[in-house]
C-alpha cells in the first residue's frame, strides 16, 4: 500500500504531476499511471485532480499523514544506527526565517563544525508555517523562531531573550520632540537600553506616520498591532512583508516606521538615518527558541548542537 509512497509524496509536495515527474526523472504519463495503481489498490482517490494546483482528497490527507509517520520512524532508526556505530558523523537540518538563517544559525553551526567536521549541516530558509510542517514530517531536526509553537507537538530549547524596538526615519519631524526617549545602536547592542531608567516612548506620537509591518501570521506583526492598540491607535500600514529584515531596510529608505528586534539590530550592519526607541518591555519581550518534534530520537548531532545553545 505504501510501496510507491515517494511518488505520491512528490506530487503532494509539488502540487503538480508535471513538476513531480521532472523531480523523479520519469515521464508524467508513467507517474500518473503509478499513482492510479496506488489509488486502485487503496480503493479511493488520493488526489483531487479537478483543482489547480492539485489537491488532496480526505483519503489523501490521511495517506500523507501515514507516509510522514513512516518517514519519521525510518529517519529515527537511521539516526540511531549512525550513533550506535559511534561514527560521530551524520546530518543536521535546521530551519529558520531569513533573519535567523542569516545571523543566528551560521555562528552556531560554525562552532559545531569546529568540533565535528564530519557532521553535514543543511539550512532551510522559509516561513514559520512551512518550517513547522517540515519539522513535523521529520525533514528538519530543528527550527529556530521567536514565536510559540504547540507544546503537545514540539519541545523547545531557549536560546536567548529578545526585545522589539521601534525604528523611525530620522527625517520625520516628530523625532526632534522625542530626544529624551531615543536610544543609540550601542545601547541596543549592549542591552543598556533595557535598563529601567531608559524611558519607554509614547507610541501614540507616531499615529499619523506610515508603518512598514509584517504579514498577519507573524509574531512581530501581532505584537506591533497590540502595542499600537494599547496606545490608542491603529497603524497606517504602507506595506505588509514576509521578512523583518526587508521591512527594516524599507524603513531605512525613509518610507515608514517599523518594529524591529534587537537581534536584527545587533547582528546586521549599522544603517544610517534612523532613530530608535524603547517599547513597553512586557509587550515587546519574547524568547528565541529552537524547536524539535516531541518524542523524536535525539541524534548525536542534535545533542551536540543543543550543548552549543545552552
Report on this structure.
This protein has 13 helices and twelve strands. It has helices spanning 5-14, 17-24, 28-42, 58-84, 98-103, 105-115, 128-137, 185-189, 219-230, 244-252, 262-267, 281-284, 300-309; strands at 47-48, 55-56, 90-96, 119-125, 142-145, 154-169, 182-183, 210-214, 236-241, 257-261, 274-278, 285-293. The strands form two sheets. Strands 3, 4, 5, 6, 7, 8, 9, 10, 11 and 12 form a ten-stranded mixed β-sheet that branches. Strands 1-2 form a two-stranded antiparallel sheet. It folds into three domains: 5-63, Orthogonal Bundle (Arc Repressor Mutant, subunit A); 71-160 and 288-309, Periplasmic binding protein-like II (D-Maltodextrin-Binding Protein, domain 2, 3-Layer(aba) Sandwich), CATH 3.40.190.10; 161-287, D-Maltodextrin-Binding Protein, domain 2, CATH 3.40.190.10. 43% of the residues lie in helices and 23% in strands. It has 310 residues and is α/β, with parallel strands linked by helices. α1 crosses α2, α2 (17-24) packs across α3 (28-42) and α6 (105-115) crosses α13.
H/E element string?
HHHEEHEHHEHEEEHEHEHEHEHEH
Strand content: 15-25%
Radius of gyration: 23 Å
Q: What CATH architecture of the largest domain would you give?
A: 3-Layer(aba) Sandwich
Distance between the termini: 43 Å
Helix/strand/pairing category: alpha/beta
**Molecular shape:** globular
CATH topology of the largest domain: D-Maltodextrin-Binding Protein, domain 2
Pfam families: HTH_1, LysR_substrate
Keywords: DNA-binding, Transcription, Transcription regulation
Family: Belongs to the LysR transcriptional regulatory family.
Protein name: LysR family transcriptional regulator
Amino acid at each position: 500500500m505504501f510501496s510507491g509512497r515517494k511518488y505520491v509524496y512528490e506530487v503532494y509536495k509539488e502540487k503538480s504531476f508535471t513538476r513531480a515527474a521532472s523531480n523523479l526523472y520519469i515521464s508524467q504519463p508513467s507517474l500518473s499511471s503509478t499513482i492510479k495503481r496506488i489509488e486502485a489498490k487503496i480503493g479511493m482517490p488520493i488526489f483531487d485532480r479537478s483543482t489547480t494546483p492539485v489537491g488532496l482528497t480526505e483519503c489523501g490527507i490521511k495517506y500523507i499523514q501515514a507516509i510522514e509517520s513512516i518517514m519519521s520512524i525510518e529517519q529515527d532508526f537511521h539516526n540511531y544506527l549512525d550513533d550506535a556505530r559511534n561514527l560521530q558523523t551524520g546530518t543536521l537540518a535546521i530551519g529558520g526565517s531569513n533573519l535567523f538563517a542569516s545571523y543566528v544559525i551560521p555562528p552556531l553551526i560554525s562552532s559545531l563544525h569546529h568540533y565535528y567536521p564530519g557532521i553535514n549541516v543543511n539550512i532551510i530558509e522559509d516561513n514559520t508555517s512551512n518550517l513547522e510542517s517540515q519539522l513535523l514530517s521529520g525533514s528538519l531536526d530543528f527550527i529556530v523562531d521567536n514565536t510559540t509553537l504547540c507544546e503537545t507537538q514540539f519541545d523547545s530549547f531557549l536560546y536567548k531573550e529578545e526585545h522589539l524596538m521601534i525604528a523611525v526615519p530620522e527625517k520625520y519631524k516628530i523625532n526632534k520632540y522625542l530626544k529624551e526617549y531615543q536610544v543609540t545602536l550601542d545601547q541596543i547592542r549592549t542591552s543598556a537600553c533595557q535598563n529601567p531608567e531608559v524611558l519607554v516612548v509614547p507610541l501614540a506620537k507616531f499615529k499619523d506616520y506610515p508603518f512598514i509591518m509584517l504579514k498577519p501570521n507573524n509574531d512581530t506583526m501581532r505584537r506591533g498591532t497590540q502595542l499600537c492598540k494599547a496606545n490608542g491607535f491603529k497603524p497606517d500600514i504602507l506595506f505588509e512583508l514576509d521578512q523583518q529584515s526587508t521591512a527594516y531596510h524599507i524603513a531605512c529608505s525613509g518610507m515608514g516606521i517599523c518594529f524591529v528586534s534587537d537581534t536584527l539590530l545587533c547582528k546586521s550592519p549599522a544603517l544610517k538615518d534612523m532613530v530608535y526607541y524603547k517599547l513597553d518591555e512586557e509587550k515587546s519581550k519574547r524568547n528565541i527558541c529552537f524547536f524539535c518534534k516531541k518524542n523524536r530520537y535525539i541524534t548525536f548531532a542534535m545533542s551536540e548542537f543543543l550543548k552549543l545553545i545552552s
